[in-house]
Design brief:
Low-confidence stretches: none
Number of domains: 2
Radius of gyration: 20 Å
CATH class of the largest domain: Alpha Beta
Order of helices and strands: HHHHEHEEHE
Strand order of the largest sheet: 2-3-1-4
Oligomer: single chain
Number of helices: 6
CATH architecture of the largest domain: 2-Layer Sandwich
Helix content: 25-40%
Amino acid sequence: MGKMESKLDAIDRSILKILEHDAKTNAKEIASRLNMTKTPVYERIKRLERDGYIQKYVAILDKHKVESSITVFSFVSLEAQKGRMMDEFAESIIQFPQVVECFVVGGEFDFLLKIIVKDLDAYFEFSKGKVASLPHIGTVKSAFVLNEPKYTTNFPLL
């Protein structure tokens, strides 16, 4: 977040919950739900955007309708946990569109990657041709998603 931003009050949190559920909800509808007028709600939304609480608005695609795919979680260890090696790996891995999320983790592994590819053959080619060819790779272990009982992009606002 960087700069000093204002704190979120209950109304801000309510606005964020509504927009997170449906980003196309307009200020008039939000105001109606919160028993407010449109102008202060609109001003709050603009402030939340300006202060970086709302980073961007996106469309969430139904991956089953768009194209068949599999999701793979890959646990990656580097040869050593040197800062520059970790930075180089992260800089390289974020360039691959198949990697939809990348986390630096503690414990047995250095990185956790969420990868979406068309099928097992595509994963094999990606892991062999892209991930394994990166410098300083130690170990890669993968887990294939069989079912996804819960998926959300919502941040759990309390």
